[in-house]
Amino acid sequence: MGSLQALIQDLVIANRILAREDVVDAYGHVSVRNPDNPHRFLIARSLAPELVGPDDIVELDLDGEPVRDDGHKLYLERFIHAAIFAARPDVMAVVHAHAEDTLPFGIAEATKLRPVIHSGSFIGANVPVWDIADKFGDTNLLVTNMDQGRDLAKCLADNNVALMRGHGFASAGRSLIEVVRMSVYLPRNARALLHAKQLGGEIKYLRQGEIDARNRGYSPYSTETWRAWEYWANKAGCSHMLTKPDAHGHDHKHDHKK
Amino acid sequence: MGSLQALIQDLVIANRILAREDVVDAYGHVSVRNPDNPHRFLIARSLAPELVGPDDIVELDLDGEPVRDDGHKLYLERFIHAAIFAARPDVMAVVHAHAEDTLPFGIAEATKLRPVIHSGSFIGANVPVWDIADKFGDTNLLVTNMDQGRDLAKCLADNNVALMRGHGFASAGRSLIEVVRMSVYLPRNARALLHAKQLGGEIKYLRQGEIDARNRGYSPYSTETWRAWEYWANKAGCSHMLTKPDAHGHDHKHDHKK
Amino acid sequence: MGSLQALIQDLVIANRILAREDVVDAYGHVSVRNPDNPHRFLIARSLAPELVGPDDIVELDLDGEPVRDDGHKLYLERFIHAAIFAARPDVMAVVHAHAEDTLPFGIAEATKLRPVIHSGSFIGANVPVWDIADKFGDTNLLVTNMDQGRDLAKCLADNNVALMRGHGFASAGRSLIEVVRMSVYLPRNARALLHAKQLGGEIKYLRQGEIDARNRGYSPYSTETWRAWEYWANKAGCSHMLTKPDAHGHDHKHDHKK
Amino acid sequence: MGSLQALIQDLVIANRILAREDVVDAYGHVSVRNPDNPHRFLIARSLAPELVGPDDIVELDLDGEPVRDDGHKLYLERFIHAAIFAARPDVMAVVHAHAEDTLPFGIAEATKLRPVIHSGSFIGANVPVWDIADKFGDTNLLVTNMDQGRDLAKCLADNNVALMRGHGFASAGRSLIEVVRMSVYLPRNARALLHAKQLGGEIKYLRQGEIDARNRGYSPYSTETWRAWEYWANKAGCSHMLTKPDAHGHDHKHDHKK
Predict the structure, then answer these.
(1) E strand intervals along B124-167
(2) CA of B231, closest CA in chain A: separation in Å?
(3) Does ipTM exceed 0.90?
(4) What angle do CA C96, C102, C104 make, to 5 degrees?
């Protein structure tokens, strides 16, 4: 299997995992940068992630326009992905979703979402909240053009996650596996913090040094990382699509460079 | 397939989706106005929505009485549907359900349910709470006659959703797909607001202009709307019953008229 | 099928429903009075309710002792059932369970569990909390003899449900279907009240007149009651065991006597 | 089947149960001391517990090193198990996991996790919170060497459970069945306490005498204990792996000695 085919397979798995783990429902999407052409990325056509197969993957450029016109309807919010890939050369994969337990932190202004559990460390110490109304006034809240996408990417800056007020979040990772993992544990971290707040008293957030230590130790194809990917793929009913890391030519090399 | 047959099929799908998404359990029901005769509507006989098939659909008039007497037991609360269809010519479909997470907002008087997330915008800016006791005193809380149904419809007025104190809600939409979607996201919006309240501080509700913008952009057979319908039908195990929008003669035309 | 065989079948269904609806897990049990001999009742041998079949049903007397010694291990807490059947000739079926969301109301003394939703009305206006420690001091919290059972039954008095502090609840109904329904909606009512409290402000409980009106209208084999039983049996994978109400000789007559 | 084979089978069941009951996900592990050599214990190679089979079980010594080098990748945090087995000769089985609802009690310092429900009694009256940062400063929060393991074991002391701040918990039992049961009911006890706190007012914790009474009555192969093991194994799809208690030579004798 060529490395691009392996990557498309992984993107399908990512779609299914995010659906099975309740990060996305009919809405929400995940994309990966084309390792052979950093000015392009792969994403599904307009379809619920649970139903995505290899033939549903399309290639878009960094303006969110399709590279080939094959008549597919596209996600209205593909500009989130295009703008983040354009602004952040280090980012290889992006998720946008409406995971329910992240929503309260975009709505209640007083409480900032921060890592409190080790599996939540990858969201990073700072999770900005982007409010589309600040710049664009009354909209349907969707990011439907590059201007809005760029404004969101600017708010994200060099963080890993931005909450979107009344809407959801965008997360950016160094690999598909990383961004999926971050997106699965983000709502869990949110719930842990919400419930800790309800218990009252002082909250022990992860320390900056702990976040840094975890980040330094992260490797997208380590045994530990693969363990979760394999587990989630199995739960999502697509373990038969798993390709061993060494099948990932480009991606694999990239992952071990840091 | 005739357009009425397609509509009955859709009504069966709507029943199954609402069951699968925990909006209804053994109780709760969904109805659709007969596009060929606006003085009649289709609804299941007295049966748990999960178990409803095409042969279980009956036709009632706007007094809640069956058009044909085929000996079926009917839902006690069919008057909710009859009264709303009578009062609201713009409404094509109605749901009544007891979705758990909507209940607290009918019980706790201090907090008003309002849209806080984009998928909740369709419930509208104003969600009145109807208390059957206000006019009818001590009842079994069920809407079992036209008088009670009309009082509920009056409280609903031209809103999309009315909460029913200690009981559930009634929602009204321009199509089956719209009312199902509204009913699925209503409890999610309720949970997001409940949890945001627990985080404390000021709540950022959707702005009126945002609610209006989303409403203006809504089309019951757009790619985005269809995506959710297809996804939910698949989860509910009845994707084989899906009929493409262009099979919907009447309904389809109606949907695009506005 | 004889009426006792039909009742045993129903008792198996009740076990499976309570397991499927998370009212019981490995622990918890349901019993039904022998309609041919009111001094005896039917209950499973010591086995997780989900795994109970017709051959696992044993017959006990009102001291909790087996009528026939067939060597089966029995539930340690069978005395809950024996004592309630002995004290309450009107009761035909009993559930004891640890349903998670009822527990907080036995632990937090300040808030009384009361009906707030129509499906919760059958728990009755007054839900006493029994604390085994009040009379028996330091125990393992289990009701393991008739003395303890009788003390619980005394606390229950003529109510339908008693919470057991740090342990669970006992519920008593006029039929198997009624006690199962009450036990399924009890945790739902508890959650609705907990969440309403979190929203703050005044709580609108069901009015006494509403509870009475619902109770007066209840019939264990009405279309509405059967609808839920059929739905839950189907979810629990045992709809093939359902016997139509008219197969229930004794039980049926009893149910319509009131 | 030899007693070691039966124990390995039980360890596989334990892995599957903990996965099915949401105590572990891709991460978390369970181990059992080798009854024939108390200086060694059995645990899976680095693999998600849900996917563990008999061939994935490896044997480690009390420094966390493999007895045989068969090239398997090992859990990074195996030192938790090694250190607890080394410090506590009475402990026969250990679980480490990140069960979500235990996390808030490690993060919010004000509220101590204590038993409030009878099934939670086995966590013991005192549940210390271990903060890796107290001694080791900024780490990735994982217990990756014996020093850290020993510090955790020291904090656990002769208790049954230690919470690990921002990370999870470690629990220690007298048998596999006991430690699994404790780990399943620990999050339930945590939720019951969290929700009771939300109801407000004074909390009725289990009394010390009650915890003691329950502990005295515990027997790992009683009918009641087996009932839960059988139920959970069935839910986890591995009831075919169950071996009756009398197949457990060593383990069985040990269990009844106390």
Answers:
(1) 129-130, 161-164
(2) 6
(3) yes
(4) 130
Specify whether B77 is catalytic: yes
Residue C125 distance to chain B (closest CA, Å): 14
- Strands, sheet with A57-61, edge to edge from the N-terminal-most edge strand: A57-61, A40-44, A29-33, A93-97, A168-173, A161-164, A129-130
Ordered DSSP codes for A12-70: HHHHHHHHHTTS-SSS-EEEEE-TT-TTEEEEE-SS-GGG--GGGEEEEETTS-BSS--
Residue C4 CB neighbours (<10 A): 16
Q: D19-52, pLDDT tens digit by residue?
A: 999 999 999 999 999 999 999 999 999 999 999 9
What chains are in contact with C, requiring at least 3 Cβ pairs below 8 Å?
A: B, D
Interchain contact A194–B (C-beta under 8 A) = yes
Instruction: Give the residue numbers of A annotated as catalytic, written as ranges.
Output: 77
Distance from the Cα of residue C187 to its chain's centroid:
12
Q: Is C257 a residue whose pLDDT tops 80?
A: no
Annotated active-site residue in B77, B100, B178, B210? B77
Residue corresponding to tokens 């587990």: A231
Which residues, other chains included, contact B223 with Cβ-Cβ below 8 Å and sequence gap of 6+?
A: A46, A73
Q: What span, in angstroms and rounded, lies between the C-alpha atoms of A67 and A41?
A: 10
| Average of per-residue pLDDT across B21-37 | 97
* C·D CB contacts under 8 A: 110
pTM: 0.94
The CA distance from B184 to the nearest CA of chain C, in Å, is 18
Chain C environment of B105 (Cβ under 8 Å): 199
Q: How confident is the model at residue C148 (pLDDT cuts 50, 70, 90)?
A: very high
Chain D residues within 8 A of A210 when measuring between CB atoms: 133, 138-141, 166
Give the total residue count for chain B: 258
Residue A151 touches chain B, beta carbons under 8 Å: no
* Mean pLDDT of chain A, nearest integer: 93
**DSSP three-state, residue A206:** coil
CA pair distance B160, B124, nearest whole angstrom: 6
pLDDT > 90 fraction of chain D, expressed in percent and rounded: 86
A256 touches chain D (CB under 8 A): no
Residues D59-84 have a mean pLDDT of 96
Question: Tokens 């049903």, residue?
Answer: C57
B190-244 pLDDT tens trace: 999 999 999 989 999 999 999 999 998 878 778 889 999 999 999 999 999 998 7
Q: Which residues neighbour B163 within 8 Å (Cβ) at sequence distance 6 or greater? A: B102, B105, B106, B113, B127, B128, B129, B130, B169
**Between the CA of residue C107 and those of B129, C111, C130, C167, D127, what are the distances in Å?**
32, 9, 11, 9, 19
C196 to chain D: closest CA residue? D199
Count how many Cα atoms sit within 13 Å of the Cα of residue C183 in the half-sphere of its side chain.
36
**What stretches of chain D adopt beta strand conformation (E)?**
29-33, 40-44, 57-61, 93-97, 129-130, 161-164, 168-173
Residue B153 dihedral angles phi and psi, to the nearest 5°:
-60, -35
Tokens representing D245 are 């208690």
B138 touches chain C (CB under 8 A): yes
- Name chain D contacts of A214, Cβ cutoff 8 Å: 140-141
Q: How confident is the model at residue A247 (pLDDT cuts 50, 70, 90)?
A: very low
Can you read off the two tokens belonging to residue C215? 């109770």
What are the tens digits of pLDDT across the range C202-229? 999 999 999 999 998 878 778 889 999 9
- Of all residues in chain B, the one with the smallest CA distance to C205 is B107
C50 and D213 in contact by Cβ < 8 A? no
Distances (CA, A) of B207 to A137, A148, A246, C130: 9, 18, 50, 49
Contact assignment for D48 to A196 by CB distance below 8 Å:
no
Q: Note the residue count of chain D.
A: 258
- Is the model's pLDDT at C245 over the cut of 70? no
3-state SS, residue A125: coil
Distance between CA atoms of residues B27 and B78, nearest Å:
12
